[in-house]
Amino acid sequence: MRTWLAPLLLLSSVAWFVAAQPPAGSPIDQGKLVIRPGGKGVELPQPADGAPGAVGDEKAGFIVIRPGGKGVPFSATATTAPKQPVPPTGQPVPAAAGLAVPPPGPQPAPGKDEKPLFDYWFAIGVEGQRVGYVNWAAKEMEKSGKSFAVGVRYLNLTVSRFGSAVTQWGEESTVETLAGEVLITSMRQGLGKDQALALTGVVEGKTLKVKGDGAAAGAADTPWVEGVVGLAREPRLYKELKLKPSEGYEFPSYIPTVNRVVKTTLTYEGEETRVLWDKTPAQKLLRFVTKPEPIGKVKLPASTTWVDAETFEPLMLETDFPSFGGRLTFLRTTKEAATVAVTKPIELFNVQSIRLDREIPGIHGKGSVVYKVAIPKDDDPATVFATDARQVVKNLDDKAKTFELHVAASHAPAKDAPAQPAPGKEFLGSSFFINWDNDAVKAHAAKATAGLPATATAWDKAAAVERWVKANMKAFEFSQAMATADNVAKTLSGDCTEYAMLSAAMCRALGVPSRTALGVVYAPGPGGKPYLAYHMWFEVYAGDQWVPLDATLGLGGVGPGHVKITDHSWHEERSLAPLLPVLRALTTRPAFEVLKVNP
Fold it and tell me: How many CB atoms lie within 10 A of CB 393?
């Protein structure tokens, strides 16, 4: 259901930028999740005085949920004998995705001071290859005579990029009435070294008032509708709806990673008998299909969930996720089995790159390339890639869903080119991700342009920034996901996203309008086979034109090997919504063929 989609939407979008290690202070390290409530008339439980670790962030307006501590929804222990599956009622099928994990243990019994609602652990596999786990839990809490349900879902994935294993994490939570009305939402996502994006939303009528800390303050509010299903209520839907075969139920879901409410349809397809775990008998299951509506032109994947026919608890979910290499399976198990270390992570470059049919030696120095692009899985294929002054779609075949993409090099503002509209203030402002108004970014910008004359143009300054970032950033290391510019200015490390964010921020500090560009870039793959790999660079407004630069290469511009999907200012953006066009491209799996190369 929706709970699986929220983290995957984000992780699949940024995984090709490479994921972040859990920062210090993340729940897996420090054992705490902080939810910042607030809002009119909402009273929420507070940590008891003297509770374990009740210091620092435990103050008015906070709930602190501690794994392993008092009143925690993360405390599943499967030390007793696992529940026996229902006797077979039909022919068994192969175990789910080959994940070698045992059945789940019993749900924890209520303690004296806590009322756990459920505590589920799932191992995650891609075509049978383990990639991580999910812990989805909820408990009842009480404050001033009022009871609330708090649901939390934590996801942890370990993947590989060019042989470098990295772990990426994300979490979300909801505070709800016992009847299921969502009062508060919370999301945290690892971004860079010792950095996470943390947002909290408080429901006030038809608006979700979103708040963040530090540079994330002033996050954009989002429209809210009645009936949004939260994490604590969600698994109850299977039982409470009492759907008949082929009958569906429509409800709104909130996806915090992109700060959007979307319509979701849950359909009951019927009963089936299936083996879920090796060396266990088949059991009777109920099969449900969840289908979210698209976000703009991004089609979100449908998923199938199998629930226990007697308890209605979710036991397995599967969804087709091409950006992770195929069929993604979540299989219920014990905490111990779910959290086993991933020893052979999937190589994302192999599944998140577009293979080319032939090599183009020296492509970054060529004048232009004409590609033939096929995107059969999209209703409007010509809009998957951007159209601008250097990139044009021609000869669209609506029936075959193919077109030519003419991509030209750009190494400076073009002479005698028509002036493009002047950029708005958002391309100069300091935002959460491109935050230039700090000493570190300003100092780097000053160093980059120290040798320029007083008559230096915007292009001269931007080109100097590209050279400086190329020379001073450390060689690519894959421990970051989407670190903010100030964080990168301190570490001077990361992959293409960090190069782009820092470069754009330094340009703005110098008064040069800038934005990031997201797309694919020509790269040699294993065995010399060429690919278009997902990538980020930056663009500046100079000479009355938007002109591209790429500090990972430092060539004073880009060649026809840079194919743009989208661009963004990141103005007032605290979510990962600007990555949605990239997710669209990842899931539609475009095919490229080289038609012509011009010197």
Answer: 17
